[in-house]
Design brief:
By secondary structure, this protein is an alpha+beta fold. Helix content is 30%, strand content 15%. The chain has one domain: B-lactam Antibiotic, Isopenicillin N Synthase, Chain (Jelly Rolls, Sandwich), CATH 2.60.120. It contains 11 helices and 10 strands. The protein has a 7-stranded mixed sheet. Helix 2 crosses helix 8 and helix 3 crosses helix 8. The longest helix is centred in the middle third of the chain and has 26 residues. The two termini are 33 Å apart.
């Protein structure tokens, strides 16, 4: 890959996966995907290769326009409908103030704003009504189409990794991420406020994603990744017609660390001020009763006897609790990053 800027801190080798290749069940593309998921935990996903690319890319542009309208509304108004604070769709353990006012700059502006839209609410998979701002009603067909498309995309990734790893029936990734089953997946909309060079700082704590897969769309730089074995943050440049995909904690736990959940953050590009930045991500999470235990594969090392099995729902709750806590049990610090050293499997 050739980076889109000349920064020596940009990732120079992040792989690109063809979405059409995944749809076609191309073994070579599945092997390439597995290698990227093990080595980097990040990759570009090319949407331009699929037959209906114009329709999907137009849908992506509609989401951009929708989030700009949404974030123009008063925060006090949006918080009345916030899914992280209301009912059974409470998907987030962060404090409201911390979540909506995440970085205080010198001039008093916030670092970024975030708004979560639950898949189950949009697709009507829950037992309770989805409480939402009126602006959602006129955009519900678009949101439903987006959720379904992203589920299809993530399932194609799961199936390719299932084949590449030789997973068995009853322990396949796609069986834990069924499209029409309730799960705490969300579309997270993000707006990052501008930062002059003299106020530069990372907008939010470096973290790993606690779910299975993240499908990020952004047209502006700012994403930085800490690659495996490196102590230097590297810029991941946006690409037109591509998503940036990363492996989350859930997939890492299901493979006992074989698939890598990389730490990442949003920060002004090296030597530059942060411009107003819009992005959005589909955060896929497994069905809540999914046991996060190493799946059976000749490539995956089994968990040791002391391993305590948690479900996907329990993992979300525990990690959110850790994020809220002011102090942490040192033995559980790895949960903050979703990563702990896993012995290398020998043959």
């Amino acid at each position: 890959m050739t980076s889109q800027n000349n920064s020596q801190n940009s990732v120079q080798s992040l792989p690109t996966i063809s979405l059409q290749g995944l749809f076609d069940q191309d073994p070579a593309e599945a092997s390439k995907l597995l290698d990227a998921s093990k080595q980097y935990g990040f990759f570009y996903l090319n949407f331009q290769t699929i037959s209906n690319s114009e329709t999907i890319l137009d849908l992506i542009n509609q989401i951009y326009r929708f989030e700009e309208r949404l974030f123009s509304l008063p925060q006090e108004y949006l918080m009345k409908y916030d899914v992280d604070d209301i009912g059974y769709m409470k998907l987030n353990g962060e404090e409201m103030l911390d979540r909506l006012h995440c970085l205080e700059l010198k001039n008093g502006r916030d670092g970024f704003e975030s708004y979560a839209i639950p898949k189950d609410g949009v697709l009507g998979l829950g037992d309770e009504p989805y409480v939402r701002p009126p602006i959602f009603d006129e955009n519900m067909p678009m949101l439903k189409a987006y959720m379904r498309e992203m589920q299809e995309v993530t399932i194609s990734i799961h199936k390719a990794l299932t084949r590449a790893l030789g997973l068995e029936i009853g322990g396949k990734f796609e069986e834990y991420h069924r499209i029409n089953q309730p799960s705490p997946c969300i579309l997270r909309l993000l707006k990052y406020h501008p930062q002059p060079i003299d106020e530069r700082g990372a907008s939010g704590t470096a973290h790993t994603d606690l779910g299975s897969l993240t499908i990020l769309f952004t047209s502006q730089p700012g994403l930085q990744v800490l690659m495996k074995g490196s102590d230097e943050w590297e810029d991941v440049e946006p690409r037109a017609g591509h998503a940036i995909v990363n492996i989350g904690d859930g997939m890492s736990l299901l493979t006992n660390g074989l698939l890598h959940s990389s730490r990442h953050r949003v920060s002004p590009p090296h030597g530059q001020a942060m411009k107003t930045r819009y992005s959005f991500a589909f955060l896929q999470r497994a069905q809540e009763q999914t046991p996060l235990v190493a799946l059976r594969s000749p490539l995956i090392q089994a968990n040791d006897e002391s391993f305590k099995v948690v479900t996907s729902g329990e993992w979300l709750h525990q990690k959110f609790s850790m994020l809220r806590a002011k102090t942490h049990d040192k033995e559980k610090n790895w949960m903050l990053t979703g990563y702990r050293e896993i012995p290398t499997k020998t043959h």
